[in-house]
Every structure is written in structure tokens, then in C-alpha cells.
Design goal:
714 residues; alpha+beta; 13 helices; 39 strands; globular
């Protein structure tokens, strides 16, 4: 189909010569001016963005809106479809914590969660999830808290040990600077206590009169653990722990036993942990094991022992060891679950009578339960080609009830309670699709695509039953491939809007993730990072070769580090793709890794390499950094989405990338930038507002493959 003329001219992006010399190489960046000098201030208060930069982003948004005007009706239809698959009065399965069941629910039309609880009488059956006709169960109303705010994200809630108070934190800019408040549950009012510039990590002291939290520094790095006593000024909060190394981020959690808080300090390769006894009035952090380069470990507690999930002693796919609480150093570690190559242990849950682990083999997960008294084990697995299996919320320690959630690309989420003693499972909730869903109308498959070096890349596939696999179908191919994050083959109601329109939906489980074990991650990081890109291209070619789609019919989709993947494959194999859908894309890799002041740069050096000190890392990153490798060639249509207050992938990365592509490309397009001026890395926070962004991406993909979207470059 012949494309119509452009509806608008793209905004002219001024250039301002800017050069730096690193390791003898001159890096020219004519769009560096898009990075605001006061970027720290902008994160905290987006209204401080310099007017000339705001004017440019506004012009880009206006241009994108103009170019996408022909998709307005389609977007409205898509939003209605996706909203029709959401149960508006949805509720989570209540989880017992002592005398109460805690759960979240939504009201009809509500955007934000309601935090609720109900009494848990001894011996009474657990309440079923479902909507209520009154609000007597609500202890925190997300809709009320969000009223009048352009952005609101209820980041965390934690009930006090005596269940009289609820610590909660929220972000109202998208920059992930949380404010912690404390709700008195009986009165429904917040106390005067207010903690600013915090992460979402909160752990109560055992007596409920104080809590620990993590404070962010001026560069948005979590660096301190502080203790806040109720009723005292935040300025008087005691400093419990501080990391002075900007490459190490501090996190805080609580053991399942509720005995300890765990201070975790880590980058992407190495970690260490310190314990705080929550029953002590003034505890001192106790180091578990001294920091060793490349040693990773996570800690749980049981009686006089610690259970430690670790890669120690060459356990590439991790093992579980035990150590005495009184002497937890490495010399005292003893294997409880030995390392088994190819069986990757993702997580552990330690309960009074059971050790539960979630592990993955050949890209498929299973749950393994060990009875601690006898050492006997049994597993929960699903006999399907591709599925998602995850541990659900368990709030108590002394329980035989495990919760897990199952779904596949055709089957909506199912939440089960599982009695680990009797091995009986009870379905507690099946995700309802109000507009209707027939799993038999769809097909899910697991393929293996050959990579150039002979590795086999798992690919999860979803399409309508009866779809002709003759190369005529368009395809949305999703990828990520970083930090060892594995993409699950779970249910996504939104993707049905594409699949029902004849798309093949595919997930490329490329290296850089951990779908095939930890080696799968190691083979896609630092000097092996190009494997991530060549894997994705190999998957695209395999889908073409097997008739699932055709070259030029694929919309590639990824976000954040997956946005780097999108930029790289657009540079390396543009002929394969009709569209590139890049959400908050990390595309200016070299300049970002050269700027040690940015929030995430120092902790990211282990993932990508440090181009400041390492000439080889500089050359490697420069060779694939999407922004630096934009070429004079025809590019697919590109839609880049950014967030003004994003502390992870700053707004100027997609802005600079689109500007350089427009100035360099010899054909293709359109090349559109859409910046959410009221949000950060996660986009819109409201559950319905987020659908507008999904619809924008899907409408762009549909418009490109159908040939109805105007082109900005001849």
C-alpha cells in the first residue's frame, strides 16, 4: 500500500558542537545540549527543566501526535479491548499474617490499589478473593492518595508487628524519590512522621516503635540505612549503615522468620550482607561474609542457622548452603543443596518446617519443596512447552501453606494454595477476563533458533489457532537480554489485541538473560554483549525461515536495557524489521558509562565495563552503542518513548537518538519521540492510564505493518 504524505515536518533539532577525547578517540556529540545541566533538580522537580529543552520535547510530542493522528480511532479501540480484559473490582488472594488477612483490591473505575485487611479467626477458612460492597476493609486508599496528582505510585506498604500501624511510601513524580508515611490503622490518619528521599525498602523493629529504611543520596543512589523512631524528627534518625562507594547500592529486606533485617550491598557481580537483630533496641550490623569479587549471596534465617543462596566455590548456577548465625563467615558454610550445572536456583523461601526453592532447567521453572526434618523432597512442575511459575505471597513463617502462581501464554493466571505436608493444592483464584477468553483458540509453542555460534536460543510463540504459517503474518518480537533477567512465557492479556489481529507474538530468550542458566547471562555481558544482539537477529531470521513471518514484517519491541537491544538491531539488520518499538531505551551507552555522576553509572560498570579506566571496554562499548553507531542507511519506522523524571534511563537518551537517526538516515521512518512529561521509567502509574501507552505502541506497530502510517523520510 502506498504511504500517504507526512502530516507534519519533524521538529528541527539544533546542533551544538561538543567533543571529548577518551583514550585518544574523539567522541562528538552534537545533541549533548539536551541533557539539562540541572538534571538532579529536574528529577526531584520536573518543572525546573530549562525552557529551551522543554520546548524541544513539547515539539517532539506534538509531531508524534500529528503523525499518529490517523491511529486515534484504533488506539481508542485498543484501550477499550484491553480494559475489557481487566476485572475492574479485582482483588488479590488474601494472605494471612497473624490475626489478619491482608490483600489488595480495586474499586470499579479505580486506577490505584486499595490496601485492605480482614480478621483471621483461628480455624476459620480463608476468605475468597473478590470485590466488596463497602469500604470497611480499606486501610489505605490509593485512589484518594492519588487525587489531583499527575503521577502517583504507591510503592510499598508494610504493617507493623502488632498490626496497629501501616508504613507506606509513594512516589508522586516518577523519579522514584519516595516519601514514607505511617498510617494509624484504627483512626485512619497518618502520623506526623515523614521521611523524604527514600527507597521503597522498609523493615519494622520487632516492638513496632521504629522502622529501618534506605535513604537516597543527591545522585539518587541508595547508600544509607537509617532507623526512624516514631514521633521523632527525621533529621534525628540514627545512621545504621552507609556505603561510601557509588558503585555499590544498598538494599534492605526482612528474613521470613522476622528475626533479622538484611542489609544487602551489591553491584551486578558481587554482594555482601549484614544482619540487624530486630529484637535489639540498638543493633549493630553483623557481617555475614566478607566481600569477595564475583561472590554473590542472599541470606535467609532458620533457628540457629542461616540459609544462603550463593555462587560460591564455582557454583555458577547457584547452590544453597547453611551457616551458624553466631559464626556465618565463608569458612563455616556447608552445602545444603549442592550445585548442579544447568539447574539454576532462582530463589529460596525458608519456613519453619520446609525449604522451598524455585529453580529453572532448560528454560522451564519448577518449585522444589524439602521437608527439613527428613530431607525428603518433591517438586511442582507443569507439563507444557512454555509457561510461567512463580512463588506467591507468604507472610508467615510457621506455616505449611505455600502459594504459587501459574500461567502460560494461552492460560490466564491461576493462584494456588499448596499444603506442603499433604501435597494437596487448592485453586484460590483464576484470572477473569470479563470480555471472554478461550485458551483453545490460541497456540503456544517453544522453538529453538540457532545462533551464529551454534547456541540454540529459546523462543516462546503465541498465535491464533488456524493462522497460516506461510510468512504472511506480521510478528511482534520482544527481547531484553541483560542483568540475568529471564523473560517468562506467562499470560499477557494486552498482547491478545495484536494476536487477534493476525500477529504472531514471540519472545526471544537471548543471552544476557538467565533462561538457560547463569552461563546464559555471562555469555551476554561485557565483552560478550554482542551475543545478545546477534541472538535476537538470529531469532528473527529463524521466524522468517520457518514461515512464522517475513523480513520487513517484524516489529521489534524492548525497553530499558532491551531498548539498547532495539537500537543495536536497528543498526545491524534494519532490513529485517518493519518497526522498532523502544520504551525508555538505554541507547546512549557510551556517554552514560563515561559519566560517573549519573545515578546508575558506577553500579553498571560490572555489567558493561568501565570505559573511563579500561580502554578495551571503551572500544567495545563504542563499537555497539546504538547512538554512536547510527549509520547512513535506511532505518525501520521507530517509536521511542521516554520519561522526563526517569532516573534509570534519562530522558535525553531517546531524544538524542531520534535526533541523530533523523539527521543520518537515508530513508525509512517515521522516527518518533514521545516523552511522558509527568512520569519516569515505568510510564504512567494508573492501571488504566498505562493502557494508553500500550495502545500507542501497538497502534504504531499495526500502522507500520499495514502501511497506513505516513513516512517522514522518502
Amino acid at each position: 500500500m502506498k504511504r500517504t504524505p507526512p502530516l507534519a515536518e519533524p521538529p528541527a533539532t539544533p546542533t551544538a558542537p561538543h567533543e571529548v577525547v577518551v583514550h585518544g578517540v574523539t567522541i562528538r556529540d552534537d545533541y549533548a545540549w539536551l541533557k539539562a545541566d540541572n538534571w538532579r533538580e529536574v528529577l526531584a522537580d520536573p518543572s525546573t527543566l530549562p525552557s529551551h529543552i522543554r520546548a524541544h520535547l513539547d515539539a517532539e510530542n506534538a509531531y508524534a501526535d500529528s503523525m499518529l493522528a490517523t491511529t486515534a480511532a484504533l488506539r481508542k479501540t485498543l484501550v477499550a479491548e484491553m480494559r475489557g480484559r481487566i476485572r475492574e473490582d479485582d482483588s488479590s488472594v488474601p494472605a494471612r499474617d497473624g490475626p489478619f488477612y491482608y490483600y489488595t483490591r480495586y474499586r470499579e473505575g479505580g486506577q490505584h490499589p486499595l490496601i485492605c485487611r480482614a480478621p483471621a479467626p483461628v480455624g476459620a477458612p480463608a476468605p475468597a478473593p473478590g470485590g466488596r460492597d463497602d469500604d470497611t476493609d480499606i486501610i489505605l486508599d490509593g485512589d484518594a492518595l492519588a487525587a489531583g496528582k499527575a503521577f502517583f505510585d504507591l510503592a510499598e506498604t508494610v504493617q507493623s508487628p502488632d498490626h496497629s500501624r501501616l508504613a507506606w511510601c509513594a512516589d508522586d513524580t516518577g523519579a522514584e524519590f519516595n516519601v514514607i508515611r505511617v498510617r494509624d490503622i484504627a483512626s485512619g490518619r497518618d502520623l506526623d512522621d515523614r521521611i523524604e528521599q527514600a527507597s521503597d525498602d522498609i523493615v519494622w523493629a520487632a516492638d513496632g516503635t521504629a522502622f529501618y529504611y534506605v535513604r537516597l543520596d543527591e545522585n539518587h543512589r541508595p547508600c544509607e540505612v537509617r532507623l526512624h523512631r516514631l514521633g521523632m524528627p527525621a533529621a534525628d534518625d540514627a545512621l545504621i549503615f552507609r556505603s561510601n562507594d557509588p558503585a555499590w547500592f544498598v538494599n534492605l529486606s526482612q528474613t521470613q522468620s522476622q528475626r533479622f533485617a538484611v542489609i544487602s550491598v551489591s553491584d551486578h557481580e558481587t554482594s555482601e550482607a549484614h544482619l540487624l537483630d530486630l529484637h535489639e533496641e540498638a543493633p549493630r550490623p553483623c557481617l555475614v561474609a566478607a566481600r569477595e569479587e564475583g561472590l554473590r549471596y542472599d541470606v535467609e534465617h532458620h533457628g540457629d542457622s542461616l540459609y544462603i543462596l550463593t555462587n560460591a566455590d564455582g557454583a555458577e548456577d547457584f547452590k544453597i548452603v547453611t551457616a551458624p548465625v553466631a559464626a556465618p563467615a565463608r569458612a563455616n558454610w556447608s552445602d545444603a543443596v549442592p550445585h548442579r550445572p544447568g539447574i539454576f536456583i532462582l530463589a529460596q523461601l525458608v519456613l519453619r518446617r520446609h525449604l522451598v526453592r524455585l529453580e529453572r532447567e532448560n528454560a522451564l521453572p519448577r518449585i522444589v519443596i524439602r521437608t527439613l526434618a527428613t530431607g525428603e523432597e518433591h517438586a511442582i512442575s507443569i507439563p507444557e512447552e512454555a509457561y510461567r511459575l512463580s512463588l506467591g505471597e507468604v507472610l508467615e513463617f510457621d506455616t505449611d501453606q505455600l502459594r504459587f502462581v501459574y500461567s502460560s501464554m494461552t492460560t490466564p493466571n491461576e493462584t494456588y494454595d499448596y499444603d506442603m505436608a499433604s501435597q494437596e493444592r487448592v485453586l484460590r483464584k483464576r484470572q477473569i477476563i470479563p470480555s471472554g477468553h478461550d485458551p483453545a483458540a490460541y497456540v503456544t509453542r517453544r522453538l529453538l533458533a540457532p545462533a551464529p555460534d551454534g547456541e540454540l536460543i529459546p523462543v516462546s510463540i503465541l498465535h491464533r489457532r488456524g493462522l497460516a504459517l506461510d510468512g504472511s503474518a506480521p510478528c511482534l518480537l520482544y527481547g531484553y537480554g541483560a542483568y540475568g533477567h529471564a523473560l517468562s512465557a506467562g499470560f499477557s492479556a494486552n498482547t491478545l489485541s495484536l494476536v487477534d489481529r493476525g500477529f504472531v507474538y514471540a519472545i526471544a530468550h537471548v543471552r544476557g538473560g538467565s533462561e538457560k542458566g547463569w552461563h546464559w547471562y555471562l555469555d551476554g555481558k561485557r565483552d560478550k554483549k554482542p551475543n545478545t544482539f546477534s541472538d535476537f537477529i538470529a531469532v528473527a531470521r529463524h521466524l522468517v525461515g520457518t514461515g512464522y513471518t517475513a523480513a520487513g514484517r517484524i516489529a521489534a519491541h524492548g525497553g530499558s536495557a532491551g531498548g539498547m537491544l532495539m537500537g543495536a538491531v536497528a543498526n545491524d539488520a534494519p532490513e529485517l524489521f518493519a518497526a522498532i518499538l523502544a520504551e525508555v531505551p538505554f541507547v546512549d551507552v557510551l556517554n552514560t558509562m563515561l559519566d560517573g555522576d549519573l545515578p546508575l553509572t558506577p553500579p553498571e560498570w560490572p555489567e558493561w565495563g568501565n570505559p573511563i579506566t579500561d580502554e578495551a571496554a571503551f572500544a567495545r562499548i563504542h563499537a555497539y552503542s546504538p547512538y554512536d553507531q547510527v549509520k547512513a542507511q535506511r532505518y525501520p519506522a521507530i517509536l521511542a518513548l521516554g520519561g522526563l523524571s526517569d532516573p534509570r534511563v534519562t530522558y535525553w537518551e531517546p531524544a538524542k537518538w531520534i535526533a541523530r537517526i533523523r539527521a543520518t538516515a537515508t530513508g525509512g521512518g517515521p522516527f518518533l519521540l514521545r516523552t511522558n512529561m509527568d512520569a519516569g521509567h515505568g510510564g504512567a502509574a494508573g492501571r488504566f492510564d498505562r493502557l494508553d501507552e500500550v495502545a500507542l505502541v501497538y497502534a504504531f506497530a499495526l500502522g507500520v505493518v499495514q502501511g497506513t502510517l505516513p513516512s517522514s523520510v522518502s
